[in-house]
Design brief:
This protein has 80 residues and is mostly beta strands. Helices cover 5% and strands 25% of the residues. The chain is built from one helix and six strands; from the N terminus they run αββββββ. The longest helix is centred in the N-terminal third of the chain and has 4 residues, at 6-9.
């Protein structure tokens, strides 16, 4: 089961109670932050990433893995 695999689970989006999704392209590379500069939005068959703050050319794009940019629920991994 991929959800039980801690390595694979880092790349899944829990789409709903029965489905998971894996983003191709850059989506699977964005790191978590409790102060993100972007967010993701689920569409019917797509995940869209949108900036919520200015992102300078050398800045890393970060998202809150909890979906809501302001959600401070602890992660199951150490946040650095």
């Amino acid at each position: 089961n991929g959800l039980a695999n801690p390595t694979l689970n880092r790349f899944f989006y829990h789409w709903d109670k029965k489905h998971i999704a894996v983003c191709l392209g850059y989506g699977s590379l964005y790191n978590h932050s409790f102060e993100p500069n972007a967010r993701y939005i689920h569409g019917k068959d797509v995940v869209t990433y949108r900036a919520i703050a200015d992102i300078a050319e050398a800045d890393e794009i970060t998202i809150n893995y909890n979906f809501k940019p302001s959600d401070q629920t602890p992660m199951k991994f150490k946040v650095v």
